[in-house]
Amino acid sequence: MKARDRDPGFRVVNLVAFAERFRGDIARLVGPSLAKSAPAGLAQLAGRVVEGVERLCAEQGGSPAELPDPSRRAYLWLRYLADPVRLERHLAALRQAAEVIAGMGLPVTVRLDFYHIGALYRARSVGRATAATLSVTASEGFIAAPREVIADLLRAAFEGTASRVQSGPPGGGPAPRPGRLPPRGRGADRGGDLSPLARVRQWASGEDYRSVLLALERDGGAAPLDTRGRCFDLAEVFERVNAAYFGGRLERPTLVWSRTVTRRKFGHYEPATDTVVISLTLDDPRVPDYLTEFVMFHELLHRVLGVGMVNGRQRAHTTSFRRAERRFAGYEQAKRAMERLAREAAGAAGAAGSTGGRRDGRGRGSAGARPGPKRDRRGL
User: Fold this and answer.
1) Is 228 part of any domain?
2) Residues 59 and 119 occupy one common structural domain
3) Which residues constitute the domain of residue 131?
4) Total domain count, the chain
């Protein structure tokens, strides 16, 4: 195993804030009085900001791939929309979404936009009484979605926030009962008995969604090519696991260390970008080789087996998955070691006065940022 000190990276100040303002500028372009020159001007502005980010990174001897995840996603999204054709596609998706919202008759005001987030979507309700608004940010991958998928996404978002929305229809009257939605109408039986969220996930597992995210990530050289940590090289771990359990037949996915230390979740597979992410918690001299190999094996099984349907819902950890997982030599030992590591990581976080994990938009917790000095903080 090769060892190398991990570089904590640097920041570009105000990059995320600029992306937020840019999202607002884009939303204003969807109105009826759109000047033909407006999209081209915004694409040029995004291009200039992207060039500035790349210049600042180069001055520090780094690349945008080394930025913290929120800044890296902002950079990739701006780079993607610096192409006028892609920006127009984004605008067309916003116009379609506005038409879908107008035709659904939801009992709240709805705002939907698209951004490069790690979840399928994030939703929150804002305001009370008749001024309530459901604000939904969907992954940029949904710019390729048909109308019925956007409608399902909005239904899923409403169902997930309805218990917190206290709104009444215009003109007063009782607030809607949580989860009550207008009927789906024509095509309501699409997907059988699947829930709106299950139908959204089903569509997002397809090629149209994946192609948008691949374009976002690949255009900016998003993933660092160096797989080496301080103690483990993920490329070497993959080769050992691939040879032992998959006959050496798997092509190597993108392999990256997470940007945070985690307390419970030590790896995940991102099918949209064919990326295996391993937690920095495992990059420790006290962690045995077999535990890192087990986590790699687990994530590669997700890659090979995909998701299954159980009682009309998508499930990653099916009975067949659990059966295949037990093929790992020393399975019980690895599970015990992982549980022990989770307890130790949680104890260390508590002793350091760490706050609880954040929510990541999928309903799962994510750990706080790994401590360490920043190499530089640069502004646009």
Assistant:
1) no
2) no
3) 90-169+191-212
4) 3
| pLDDT tens track for 302-330 | 999 887 656 656 677 888 999 999 999 99
Q: Are residues 71 and 106 in the same domain?
A: no
Q: With the CA atoms of 368, 371, 374 and 378 taken in that order, what torsion angle do they form, in degrees rounded to the nearest 10?
A: 20
Type of residue at 248: G
pLDDT of 169-206, one tens digit each? 333 333 333 344 445 544 344 445 689 999 999 999 88
pTM of the model: 0.61
